[in-house]
């Protein structure tokens, strides 16, 4: 064995000794590394894993949140079904085009657009706390609130913009009234409003029905306390010639525009009328009356009766049986003559009904209150 072989065996022995002792081997020379070797921890730059997406590319299976699913489209309102009200109706009027406009007690005022009722006067924005009446006259909406906490009458333009507060709670307290029972507006924009004497305080001028000018000024007592039948005014309506009908729970009185008494048109017990509450006048001048019947005794139900302008009985337009079968409340929130001389009623459930020519009920706007 020559010297070279001895050196190689010595080196091999040292290496084996170091390996068995757990010592690291010699550091490899970087110049001796295989240039074609692949680091197992490195990612191939041109290889895309199945679940990876290049940062500049969009996953073809991803859904863009800004794109609406064409299959997820709400169907249009059924033309054969009455439009649905989002809140219970309190009062009804019609705009210059004959389209229905419905006021709700707490939410706001809605008008029919494209088959759906959409809000255009917000209760929250306009401090409408308890809307009881809405009327459209001369391109303006008159809105009355009957809340004893904040009774008021406000004026809005045809687009729902606030114009003025014609009567505020301070005015009513000064007049001695606690709440507004009803409100009508004549062709000149003058507003008649009534108190129920039973809810009226003893302060003030003792007026039962007042009138204010279109600008909210010149309060005038039209019906004084004691002039009309007891116990107080609960319903108002204007005759075709401007006379004022006043329902007082037991009678219907007729007054001139300035308050001169003309006649008692209907008395309790006449032609089935027991307790008149809501009034409406049609184009022919006939007077339609929602009569509450004898609610306390319960033996006579509510009905709608029609009289001529002098109190002559014409017909029972809506019978107690039809009201009972329709499961209407015995009290009407509003009674309105609309376009084409159609007659509409809102009950306390908040639904709007049309009274058909044959004395039946057809749902005109459905609140869907349930329980019917």
User: Which strand order spans the largest sheet, edge to edge or round the barrel?
Assistant: 1-2-3-4
Helix content: under 10%
Q: Which segments are poorly predicted (pLDDT under 50) over 5 or more consecutive residues?
A: 2-7, 200-205
Please, what is the average pLDDT?
79
Straight-line distance between termini: 117 Å
Task: Indicate the proportion of strand residues.
Answer: 25-35%
Question: Given the C-alpha coordinates, what overall shape results?
Answer: globular
Order of helices and strands: HEEEEHEEEEHEEEEEEEEEEEEHEEEE
Strand elements, count: 24
Short characterization:
This protein is mainly beta. Helices cover 9% and strands 35% of the residues. The longest helix has 18 residues.
Description:
Helix content is 9%, strand content 35%. Strand 14 and strand 15 (251-255) form a beta hairpin. The strands form 6 sheets. It has a 4-stranded antiparallel sheet with strand order 1-2-3-4. It is mainly β and 372 residues long. The protein contains 4 helices and 24 strands. It has helices spanning 3-20, 123-126, 169-175, 320-325; strands at residues 89-94, 100-104, 108-113, 116-122, 131-137, 140-145, 152-157, 162-167, 182-185, 191-194, 207-212, 220-224, 235-238, 244-247, 251-255, 261-267, 276-281, 287-291, 303-307, 313-318, 332-337, 343-347, 352-355, 361-365. It is globular, with a radius of gyration of 40 Å.
């Amino acid at each position: 064995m020559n010297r070279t072989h001895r050196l190689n065996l010595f080196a091999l022995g040292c290496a084996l000794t170091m390996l068995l002792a757990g010592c690291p081997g010699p550091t490899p020379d970087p110049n001796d590394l295989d240039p074609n070797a692949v680091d197992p921890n490195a990612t191939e730059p041109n290889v895309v894993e199945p679940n990876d997406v290049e940062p500049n590319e969009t996953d073809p299976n991803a859904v863009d949140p800004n794109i609406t699913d064409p299959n997820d489209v709400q169907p249009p309102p059924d033309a054969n079904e009455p439009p649905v009200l989002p809140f219970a109706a309190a009062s009804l009027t019609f705009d210059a085009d004959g389209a229905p406009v419905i006021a709700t007690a707490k939410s706001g005022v809605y008008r029919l657009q494209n088959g759906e009722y959409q809000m255009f006067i917000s209760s929250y924005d306009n401090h409408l706390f308890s809307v009881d009446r809405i009327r459209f006259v001369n391109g303006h909406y008159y809105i009355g609130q009957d809340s004893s906490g904040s009774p008021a009458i406000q004026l809005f333009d045809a687009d729902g913009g606030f114009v003025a507060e014609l009567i505020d709670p301070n005015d009513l307290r000064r007049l001695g009234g606690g709440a507004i029972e009803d409100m009508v507006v004549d062709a000149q924009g003058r507003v008649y409003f009534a108190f129920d004497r039973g809810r009226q305080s003893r302060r003030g001028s003792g007026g039962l029905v007042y009138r204010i000018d279109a600008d909210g000024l010149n309060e005038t007592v039209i019906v004084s306390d004691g002039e009309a039948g007891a116990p107080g005014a609960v319903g108002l309506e204007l005759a075709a010639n401007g006379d004022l009908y006043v329902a007082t729970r037991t009678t219907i009185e007729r007054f001139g525009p300035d308050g001169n008494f003309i006649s008692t048109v209907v008395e309790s017990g006449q032609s089935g009328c027991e307790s008149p509450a809501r009034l409406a006048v049609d184009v022919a001048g006939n007077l339609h009356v929602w009569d509450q019947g004898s609610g306390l005794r319960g033996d006579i139900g509510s009905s709608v009766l029609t009289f001529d302008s002098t109190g002559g009985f014409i017909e029972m337009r809506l019978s107690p049986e039809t009201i009972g079968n329709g499961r209407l409340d015995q009290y009407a929130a509003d009674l309105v003559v609309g376009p084409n001389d159609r007659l509409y009623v809102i009950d306390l459930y908040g639904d709007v009904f049309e009274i058909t020519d044959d004395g039946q009920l057809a749902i005109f706007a459905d609140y869907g209150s349930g329980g019917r």
